[in-house]
Amino acid sequence: MKTKLALLSLSGLLLIGCGDETVDNTGKESEAASSSEVVENKKEDPKDEMLVTGGPLLEPGQYKNDEEFGRIELLKITSPGNENEIAPGLFLTLKDVKVLNFEDIPEENQEYAEAYYGFKDSQGYQLQFEYTVDNQNDYSIDNTVIEKIILSDGEQVTRDMYLDETFELEANSKASGQIGGIEVPTPDIDSATFYINPYDTENYEQIETTPVKVEF
Fold first, then answer.
1. What pLDDT score was predicted for residue 134?
2. Where in the chain are the domains?
3. How is domain 23-215 classified at the CATH fold level?
4. Predicted model pTM
C-alpha cells in the first residue's frame, strides 16, 4: 500500500486575500484550502485583470503569485463533473482538471519543488485534478486514489506523491473534493485518461475498472 504523504502546500488552490483592481475568485468555485499566501509583487501592474488574489484560478491566462512557488498560471481547464461507474458500485467523478505553469520558483524552494513535484530548476508544468470516489458496495475497497494518467500523446505518468487523499473507502461511503497533482512534461495536452486500481479488502482481489477520459 502506498503511504499517504502530506505536503506543506498545494498550488493552484484557494487563496486568501483580495485586491481592488485585480480578480477575486473567492466563492466562485470551492476547492480545498491552501496554506499558501499571496505575495504582492510590486512590479506587477495593479490593474492586471488576470492576477487572481483570492479563490482558485478559473480561466486560462489567470495567474497568482505564490510565496513558495513563484508565478502560477492556468493554461487549460476542463470541468466535466459527470459521474462514471468505473466498476460495479464504484463511481469516479472528475470536477476540475487543470494544466498549470509554475515559473520563477524561488531558488531556495527549487530543491523542495523538485522533490515533491518533479520540477527542474525554476519552472515546471503540473496536471491538477479534483475528484470524488464513491463506493456504493456493501464491502470496503482499498487503493481508491487516482494512480496513473495517460496523456493525449500517449505519455503515461504515475503518481507516487499524495496529499491527504483517501486510500480506503468503507462500504457505502465516499471521498469528495480530493485534490491530486502530477508533473507533466508538456502543457500541450488535449486529453487525459485517469486510472484507479482498487482491490476488495476482504479477499484482496484486484477490481477491474474502466478508465475515465477527459478532454480539454
1. 98
2. 23-215
3. Immunoglobulin-like (2.60.40)
4. 0.79
